[in-house]
Structure formats: C-alpha cells, structure tokens
Amino acid sequence: MTEIESVCPGVERLSLRTPTLLPATETNTYFVTHGDEFYVIEPATPYEPEQAALIGAIREKIRSGLTLRGAIVTHHHGDHIGAAMRVREAFSTPVIAHRETRTRLRDRVTTDGELDEGQTLFDGEVEVLHTPGHARGHVCLRQREGRWLVAGDMVASVGTILIDVEDGGDMADYLAQLERLADAVEGVVLPAHGAPIERGAERLRHYVAHRLAREAKVLAAVSDGWRTEDELVARAYDDTPREVWPIAARSARAHLQKLVREGRVAFDGARWRAE
Ligand SMILES: [Zn+2]
Asked: 269 CA to middle of ligand 1, Å?
C-alpha cells in the first residue's frame, strides 16, 4: 500500500515495505497533524521506491501549506528507521527519539532531539509516554484525551511482538506498560504493523492475558524438575508449529528472566526448575 489513509482525526497512515519479522512485511508511517504543523512518525522503509513514495507524501503535505516539525522514531529496530536519514536530509528536519534509542542508533542514524515521558507535542495536544519492554527506549504517542495512541511495537495487528532479552527486552516491563497503555487509551490503537485496532484498550488487556497464559505454560514446563531450554520450549509451545520454536525460545527466555527475578524459577546456568 503506497496510498495515505486517514485513520482518525489528525492522523494518517502510510504502510510501506520493510525488513520486518514475518508474517508482517510492512511498517506503518504515521503523519500526526495539528493546526498547520505535522510530525512524521516511523520513517521506516529502507527501500526504493517506497522511500520515494514517503518523500513524495511529505512533499505534498508541505506543498499544501503544512510545516514539518520533525521525524520521530518509536525505538531503534531496523524496521522503524530505514528512511530517517533520508527524511532528515531531504527536509532539513530533526530526527527525534528517546535517549536510549539515540544511544543505540549512534552508528546508523543521526538524531537531533530527545523525547521522554512527560513531554508533549503541539503544546500539550499529544503526550509522550516512555514504554520500555520491547525496547528500552520505546515511546508511544497519546492524544491527550486518549482518542488515539501511536503504539509502535507495543502491540501489532499483523504478526507478534518479540521480547528479546539480548536486545534490551524485558517481559515484566512490557506487561506493566501494556496495562498502563490500556488505562491510557479510550479509542483506537495505531500499531507499527497492520491495521488500526478499534477498542484498543480491550486488545491491550487481551495481550497481557495471552502473555500471562504463556508464562503459566513456561512455569508448568519446569515444574517437575530441571529442564533445558529445548525441553521447556517443546512443552510450553506444544500448541505452536515447530518452525516457530526458535523465535518462541527467545520469548521463553524473556518469561524465564522475569520468573527468575520473581523468585519463582531457579536457573543453574544451563537448566531451569520451578522453585
Ligand atoms: Zn521493534
């Protein structure tokens, strides 16, 4: 899809092909407009001609009289930043991200400004929420009355969100932030991958319940003695196809890290066991 689509008042979506985690193949770039100014959220695609479509869409907005205030990236992952440098250079506009994201992007993307919890865009109209868990520097943007939430990779309507402890992921933080977002949004949740999610709070709570159900399976898999990662993945993910187990193992590690921290699981350096 290389057409801009209006998703709610003040927000438009342009979904473009990116190197992302299958079955997702695209990342949404959002245009958030207030008055005669706008931000580009997730200048994501590294590919031509998708970058050309993005640049053309921005140029069209500027031609219509709007001023571009900056390009915001929700976090550092490669499927969210591919056009950041191109947009920065084409429009002499700042690339803005959380400081943890800026640190991780240092060698790939020049960033110019920082976003953190408590800051706002457009004089309070849009709030910045720092939502670590999927990535340490992850931010979401919330319309101040909760009418919409640009959710980055906190939730997806295509594919699943990977919590990778080797890349700063943290399951406990992630679940806490999902609960907080569920309380913060009244309207639509706008994920980085896939269509807008109506009744967003409901979906966010469903996500938390789904993760906790999986965590209960991980815990059950180590309840009868020491288990290696392969053994516990085969048990805890027995309802998923074998080919996803390598990815499942990374999720299992995130659950195990949380369970060990909570004192519910022991780790001997190679195997896990319920306490
Ligand atoms: Zn991500």
From this structure: 28
